[in-house]
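Subject: Sanity check before I submit

Could someone independently write out the structure tokens for this chain? I want to compare against mine line by line before I put it in a report. The sequence has 119 residues.
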Amino acid sequence: MYTERRIERHLLPSFLKVYNRFTDQPIGYLGYASEDGLMLISTLPLLVGPDFELQLRIPAKAGAWQRINITASCLWCHEDESPGFYDSGFMLLQAPREYDQLVAALFNYFSFRPLPTSA
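---
Independent answer below. Compare away.
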């Protein structure tokens, strides 16, 4: 029996930094991304409950950066398997279309697709 599996999250390499959009200070790295939320990997534990004003900085053309501002609520935080790191789960409260485009691009990049068959 064939069943479809929907991949909801993707583990990302530690290169997509996440910043506090008001202070411009780095908070951590994007660990997972989905349409409804994200996971942040940081060196300090984050407070559970409050809303965070986050900014993702994505490499763009000619050395520029695309900035994606989001508002998210921290739902949980626990120590990572790697010593000195913490994982925090966020529910998106407000995100622009560019965030959805980023999630779709990451999904396409990290998904396994069958090779086209030649007819």
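---
OP: Matches mine. For the report I'm noting this point. The chain has one helix and six strands.
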